[in-house]
């Protein structure tokens, strides 16, 4: 079964659009997401355009603030502090990566954790690890929603996550653990990786290497969630970290790239914005 993240994201957006219409009546305004774009890196421009389009599709107010890549760290911090104070702003997202002279961690820490729709603020990260209420990072949240959508039982399963980054590998591992999977986290120093991945009943791959996971690294019936977004060096087309053609006949469930985890990440950003808005409205 190939799970279409695109289809699920469309369903989520339809549900959110109906909710937003109700919130507008109840609270007198719609959720407002502000995206800050520094510089004009083509990939970042495209991500930011997509986020604004999604926001408008579900009826949010959406603002994109564009700043030149010569902006200083202090100026960017001052802008974020202003947005933090603005009661009409529910979600703030600063598109990463930032120019080298700006500390990403300082910027992430400056965004109010209550408006941190990316879920990257240390307080939101801590909330996840301490099982407290907070904002969960979009990509890991999307992976779990895709598994649920596909009707995959997570409890009791052997899950292997390749990758241990703060934005994907670690939080997705924690979410799987919270759903009572037994989780192994693999990384670049893992020895005999294929022996470990072959034990997986659920395999989440977030490495950033085109078609890295081959058919001989997975077992029959495995559920594969491919988070990777790469360019295929041969064709130049988008591809995942998993050799989709090689693995799809062995997998019981697999996500394609593009059209799998990516669209769900975007849908989860909208969900997170609504969560931040509702917390603000119900204070
Ligand atoms: P990252 O920060 O570069 O982390 C990559 C992880 O993969 C690291 O933990 C690294 O291990 C591990 N790794 C690298 N080479 C490996 C190897 N040969 N064997 C085993 N593990 C290896 O990347 P990321 O930010 O997590 O992103 C991962 C991928 O997901 C990228 O393709 C990115 O574009 C994609 N992504 C997609 C979305 C989406 O919306 N779909 C969102 C975010 C990211 P070490 O820790 O030992 O270095």
What does this structure look like?
- By secondary structure, this protein is an alpha/beta fold.
- It has two domains: 28-112, Rossmann fold, CATH 3.40.50.10860; 138-262, NAD(P)-binding Rossmann-like Domain (Rossmann fold, 3-Layer(aba) Sandwich).
- The protein has helices at 5-27, 42-57, 73-85, 104-110, 122-129, 138-149, 169-178, 193-197, 244-247, 261-281, and strands spanning 32-38, 61-67, 91-94, 158-162, 182-186, 202-205, 223-226, 230-231, 238-239, 253-254.
- The chain has a five-stranded parallel β-sheet with strand order 5-4-6-7-10. It has a three-stranded parallel β-sheet with strand order 2-1-3, with helices on both faces.
- α7 (169-178) links the parallel β4 and β5 (182-186).
- α1 (5-27) packs parallel to α10 (261-281) and α6 (138-149) crosses α7 (169-178).
- The model has no long low-confidence stretch (mean pLDDT 97).
- NADP nicotinamide-adenine-dinucleotide phosphate binds at residues 139, 162-165, 167-169, 186-190, 193, 206-209, 227-230, 261-262, 265.
Task: Fill in the keyword field for this structure.
alpha/beta, Rossmann fold, binds NADP nicotinamide-adenine-dinucleotide phosphate, 10 strands, 10 helices, 283 residues, single chain, three-stranded parallel beta sheet, 42% helix, five-stranded parallel beta sheet
Give the arrangement of secondary structure elements.
Layout: H1 5-27, E1 32-38, H2 42-57, E2 61-67, H3 73-85, E3 91-94, H4 104-110, H5 122-129, H6 138-149, E4 158-162, H7 169-178, E5 182-186, H8 193-197, E6 202-205, E7 223-226, E8 230-231, E9 238-239, H9 244-247, E10 253-254, H10 261-281
Parallel strand pairs: 1-2, 1-3, 4-5, 4-6, 6-7, 7-10
Antiparallel strand pairs: 8-9
Helix pairs in contact: 1-10, 2-10, 6-7, 6-10
The protein binds NADP nicotinamide-adenine-dinucleotide phosphate.
């Amino acid at each position: 079964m190939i799970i279409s993240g695109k289809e699920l994201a469309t369903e989520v957006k339809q549900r959110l659009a109906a909710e937003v219409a109700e919130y507008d009546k109840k609270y007198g305004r719609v959720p407002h997401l502000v995206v800050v774009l520094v510089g004009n890196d083509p990939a970042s421009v495209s991500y930011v355009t997509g986020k604004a389009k999604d926001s408008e599709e579900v009826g949010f107010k959406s603002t994109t603030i564009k700043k030149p890549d010569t902006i200083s760290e202090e100026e960017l911090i001052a802008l974020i502090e202003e947005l933090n104070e603005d009661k009409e702003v529910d979600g703030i997202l600063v598109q990463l990566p930032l120019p080298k002279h700006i500390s990403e961690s300082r910027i992430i820490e400056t965004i109010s954790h209550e408006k941190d729709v990316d879920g990257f603020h240390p307080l939101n990260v801590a909330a996840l690890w301490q099982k407290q209420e907070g904002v969960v990072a979009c990509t890991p949240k999307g992976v779990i929603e895709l598994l649920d959508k596909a009707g995959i039982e997570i409890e009791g399963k052997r899950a292997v996550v390749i990758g241990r980054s703060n934005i994907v590998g670690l939080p997705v591992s924690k979410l799987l653990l919270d759903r009572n999977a037994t989780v192994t986290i693999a990384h670049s120093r893992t020895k005999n990786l294929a022996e470990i991945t072959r034990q997986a009943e659920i395999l989440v791959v977030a490495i950033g290497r085109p078609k890295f996971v081959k058919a001989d690294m997975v077992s029959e019936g495995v559920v594969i969630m491919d988070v990777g977004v790469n360019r295929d060096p041969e064709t130049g087309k988008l591809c995942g970290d998993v050799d989709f053609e090689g693995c799809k006949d062995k997998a019981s469930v697999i996500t394609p790239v593009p059209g799998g985890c990516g669209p769900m990440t975007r849908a989860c950003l909208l969900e997170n914005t609504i969560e931040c808005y509702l917390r603000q409205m119900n204070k």
